[in-house]
Description:
The chain is mainly α. The chain has one domain. The protein contains nine helices and no strands. It has helices spanning 2-17, 21-33, 35-58, 60-66, 70-90, 107-115, 118-130, 139-170, 174-196. The radius of gyration is 17 Å and the shape is globular. The N and C termini lie far apart (39 Å).
Amino acid sequence: MLEAVLVVISVALPLMGSPGPATLSSAAVGSAFGVRAGIPYVAGICLGTSTVVAIVASGVTGIVFAVPGLLPVLTIAAAAYILYLAWKIATAPVAVARDAGRRAPSFLPGYLLAIANPKAYAAFGAIYASTATLGDGTGAYVALRVGLVIALVFFVNPAWLLLGSAFTRVLASPRWGRIVNVVFAALLVASMAAIFI
């Protein structure tokens, strides 16, 4: 059992922890709005990503993607939201002006981004397929894989939120705060472009 745990973690952590729309948006929200204000958004990311894990593990993904015309619609909706979020982050008030500025994205936008994130489906499909031979295929091993991946989701995204917030503390000037926000927004758009191209 310990070997199975280590295999799942070694496969899942690099895929889930790497930059992508969910992780970069978590960092960007932390940078633009701070940890406290970013918690609802990251909670949405975590629960939405956990929903994706359950969908992939259950096999529903294949059915959803088999519906004619649904995949392009989901892809366009995800791209549009990521562009909107990048704009909101790039133009967010910097640390010194947060109290008077706009509010951080809430739970629902985080959840919707996570379930519309193509990287999540690809990553969890890869994790699920590459660890499919663990154990004897019983429900216990399926639950172990799903449980470990969901636990990692709740570790990785808050870690990116904290990382983003750390940038704000280090670069507290309005000029550098704006630069950090714009860089995170650009990275978010680039991660989206890399997935869709």
